[in-house]
Amino acid sequence: MHLWLPVLGMGVAVNAAIAAPDFERDIRPVLEQHCLKCHGPDKQSGGMRFDQRQVPLAGGDSGTPAITPGQPDHSQMLHRLTSTNKEDWMPPKGERLDAASIGLLRRWIAAGAAWPETPMAAAETKVRSTHWSFQPLKAVEQPNVKDEKWPMNPIDRFLQARRESAGLRVVPDATPAAFIRRVSYDLTGLPPSAEEVQAFVQESVSPKAYEGLIDRLLQSPRYGERWGRHWMDWVRYADTAGDNSDFPIPQAYLYRNYIIESLNADVPYDRFLTEQLAGDLLPAKTLEEKNRLTIATGYLAMARRFGSLVERYPQHLTIEDTIDNLGRTVMGLTLSCARCHDHKFDPVSTRDYYGIYGIFASTRYPMPGLELFQTQKDFVPLLTPQQVAEKMEPFQKETDRLTESMENLLAECEAKSLENARRERDASVDEQRKMKGALDRMLLKARSAGEDLADHLKKTPPLPTAYAVQDARPINARIQIKGEPDRPGAEVPRKFPDVLGGHLLPPEAQAGSGRLQLAQWLTGKDNPLTARVMVNRLWQRHFGKGLVASTSDFGLRGEAPSHPELLDWLAQEFIRSGWSFKHMHRLILTSHAYRLSSQDVEDNLASDPSNTLYWKFNRQRLDAESIRDTLLLISGSLDPTPQTQAYPIPPTKDWKYTQHHPFKDDYPSNKRSVYLMTRRLTAKPYFQTFDGADANVCTTTRDSSVTALQALYFVNDSFVQEQAGLCARRLLKRTADDQERLRQACLTLLAREPSAEEMQLLTKHLQTARLTTNDEAAWASLTRSLFRLNEFLYLD
How far is CA 665 from the centre of its chain? Predict the structure, then answer.
């Protein structure tokens, strides 16, 4: 006899002869003892938790319910508890459940899995963390210090209080000449002229001279070029796509120039970030403004491309690269660690990851070209819709037809691939062969359709376009089991990480991608990470290391801040200033701490060898761009004008790039290094030698290696030889007096006057060189010797 009983709102067949175990007495103790450690309020491995009834019934990340009431043989929970496959075992480690406990669970499920509501089910629904970086910004009072005369601004009080408590003695200030060289490189990436050094040394008796110098440098157009390069490091800027053939992106320079211009204009960081994530979704009054905002989304378009085929194109890898860079650059989190499973250390779940993934899956990325699609697609026109329609009218109908044909075939291939993946385990070898053959035929049709579209697009008139993104059909992502796109799990609504609020997209935003809401959430007052991460990056670039040493990892495996109160005060000041970069530069650079010399104190080195308490300024080597730009500047060869045109890359009709013959063109110039072409797969040897940024990943901190290759570069490289010769000619034309030439050489290269002993050594070098060569070559030899000095290559 069977009775139909309503259990959990469902009709399930229950055998009246089976005595149903009591949940509170029999079942809850088993779950608490064996399951809640990994599937409870503190941790939800696989998105599953057994402290709430609705989750096991709905399914975790896999989308497969753990419990099917009335059907124990179809319940994943029992399958995992009794499996002989170690990969499926639950619990995965430790003692397995005894037969009696498994029998209780089986009888309970067979009886309908009655699970009464408890207060616990409605509580603990959001992940919480006590880790410092996830806590709200604190209102911080400036600390008291013993020596009230030493601080020049609030930053100094925080540093001095810690230093005084440790009993460390601060070093003297840097000389005015050392300071102007330091701050000039810091803000512009270029050295001061000899005349600027001499003028500042004379003016430095006035405290206002320092502030005036900093303001002048911040107003220089060179500032945006210098700090634009830093941003390009973080967002892995490149002029090529990074796919197998490393296709060129002629339009990429527009995004680079957007960065430089925005920083020069001191666009507030919250706006700067919003424009790059969702500029195309912001209102614009003019076409010029609209184009600028469109170009800004080049940040997202800059994500790496992979593979060589249109069919089965690994778009998930491009989205993963986007999320990884966003996490590291903006949030200071390794979000990509949650792609295959819940983050091992940080409170970021797989559901959090795919909540963000859905936002970028609802975004149309431009296609820069592929080995089997040798043209561009989905770039955004920088014209009005009417202008685009007029130019494309003769081609639009065929473009739409071919695009629809290709996209339909690709969708069919994806559906067939997923179907095969689901059926493969239970299919015979012969059936698997047939399934694969059918899919291969579909893939070939999709490839042919792609080639037809590419051939047609090459015939359409060229339009001014941007390497930018657009909204696509909005979708929610499905979890990819173990990170495999052909193993879809549960669907996740577009959302933000639970640890920082876990907001879902509001109903009115569901019709779009959610990129604008993502930007608003990142820059909202309740998100403590965005401001903390950026002020720490600014601090790192000025002092050589961040208050948080792991500048792209504020998670549990990252470093704790050395001065947490100062970090929070700076973050709040950043927000109070209207997210102004230049305000923060002024604040940091006018501190007494920044004015210190780099000399050592033996007692301090014993107790604080890494200078964590900022008792001196950290000596820093010039980066690759500054070295090259300096050589060009002092030789008179530097072209200071921005690069405002695309590189002379061949037109798309001539593209024939392949994995074995990738794009490798180069377009050298005497412009600043920030304007040189950056290839992802074949970096320039010079930048490899001097630790340039890796254009494939977020470059948090550049290495500062010391190698024999670097020394040999200054001896043998033709570029160095040429610049030394040009520099020598300038010195010879300046004056006929050797002593004055030597003085000018030191002022130009080292930003200081030579000592009497140095004058003797330099004079002797000249005399020796003149014995075997002409005057110009002798001076070139002396100049090359100065290039090799540590004092030339390092900032004190």
Answer: 26
